[in-house]
Model the fold of this input.
Amino acid sequence: MSLSDVFATARAESRAALIGYLPAGFPTVEGSKDHLRSMIESGCDLVEVGLPFSDPVMDGPTIQAAAEQALSAGFRVRDLFDVVAAVADAGGRAVVMTYWNPVLRYGVDAFARDLAAAGGLGIITPDLVPDEAEDWMAASAAHGLDRTFLVAPSSTEERIAMTARASSGFLYATAVMGVTGARDVVSSAAPALVARVREHTTLPVGVGLGVRSGAQAAEIAGFADGVIVGSAFVTAAGESDAAVRALAADLAQGVRSAVAPV
Amino acid sequence: MGQFTPTPHDPDARGHFGPWGGRFVPEALIAAVDELAAEYDKARLDPEFVNEFKRLLRDFAGRPSLLTEAPKFAEHAGTRVWLKREDLNHTGSHKINNVLGQALLTKRMGKQRVIAETGAGQHGVATATACALLGLDCVVYMGEVDTERQSLNVARMRLLGAEVIPVKSGSRTLKDAINEALRDWVANVDDTHYLLGTAAGPHPFPLLVRDFHRIIGIEAREQILEKAGRLPDAVVACVGGGSNAIGIFHGFIDDTDVRLVGVEPGGSGLDSGSHGATLTAGTPGSLHGAMSYVMQDEDGQITEAHSISAGLDYPGVGPEHSHLKDIGRAEYFPVTDAEAMEAFALLSRTEGIIPAIESSHALAGALKLGPSLGPDGLLVVNLSGRGDKDMDTAVKYFGLADGGQA
Ligand SMILES: Cc1ncc(COP(=O)(O)O)c(C=O)c1O
Done:
């Protein structure tokens, strides 16, 4: 199963894919495996396994605090592959979402090799743009991993086209100009951005930043191929596994009840 | 050569100095750094911009800054020492050079809001000052630890009309203040300029911050030729993010007989692990938007820097310094907190100049370097700032309040 299959399956069911994010090691390494498995069982088509990083400049307070907790509990990069393997062994699909420095430090090729061996499908790179990604292009090709780069409301047409060409699997559209964190309303910039992206590519487009409810998921499912939920899962994981399951179920319902964009 | 003349030492179009630099930032910020780069490319060739910048440096900041011989301090160094007096600039450090340049760029881009990070508070004060002068709104992020050890500067910023936001995440120092400023910038990039205070960050910051500080080296070179009749054997500067150092280095970069010496914060000593000597002890990595040497563990987690000097307490460094180190054009070594404080007291007592603790690292470096040059040798030390802001630290360190003597 590859990333394109994930989106093809959802498309065949006339719905958007649900993509849930949780940092590995939060609240503990074993705890994150349990929650990620619950997310899969309760309706996530794909999980993004976050790599906790000391300086998460793209993240708001919720994910910052989760990363800090994981790191102070002793999380190590090698634990990431263990968590990804646990998801894959449970029949789930996982990509990694990581700031670039830990990958650089591990060695780009070695990281790709070990992620592929663990059963991971690709990497989402919030602070790596294709302009600087020569090593990653080579390593991902060598190890059969997908590359998800991000586009933003501020991206020019030229950059959207370039970023889409460099990506595979799916493209990540950041719905708002800002950091991660649950928000009450879906950004008005998101549908316009997705429409611009579609001018340049047939790749599936996932929309993230700020989604936390089934109703919001339904709204995004009306114009995007994937709904990405991060901080809300982190908050739920801070409560209980039951909360994680309930959130996934609510969101899974949402991506199956798309409302047409206004 | 003018301050903005392109040189063979400029980075490539994407901001690379050899393998260093570039842009390791979220896509959401690319449009903003592209806009800034394009605006700077126009501004640096626009006589109106260049003249306005020069006018502010002269009539507001008080440039040119003096070059002062320090003969009694020099006795302790065993060689002749001249000080480039950036401490005499308005607001008390070199930081004003870069701030005035970027504030003018902010105006050109039609943005009304400025955000900045600050460690020692010198960059924050300079930014708040320029914003007051030019009528811009100003928000300064400052690590909570630094707001405590540099409380006087917090008060100065607030008096100047800036909002100071203490940053409570991570190590609560400069690195975390930069993280928070970047988060603000992503969310408000339409109307906000991030006025970065050192020669680090994504392209074009390392280039334009360096260029705004090139005036230090240009003046120093002319002044030393006039006063001493020759070029120095070495130019010495402290390195936090690297802006004062790169500014003075560039005046001498093509004088290959002049050694360029950067002095890093050695904290309690390199063996203690408690320091901020990024170039001496760091490894390649990406932090705050550029590839450079960084202090990190084997997992690529950024480690905390430690220095008695808030302005040097940073686990990263500007990419051009990584390049100059690699090609061997500049050399870098650390001095400890204790050595810096000794130099701090020595300059105060021998020359009647109280230096910033940051700059005291450069002075301590000169004391180490001097003996090898001998009495005919000649050093130019960049005295990047004045020490008024450091009185709290000095009072505690030397026990001055209890009748102690430095
Ligand atoms: C007086 C002074 N010197 C030096 C520095 C270090 O910065 P940089 O390495 O960018 O010159 C600072 C930073 O706050 C400073 O205030």
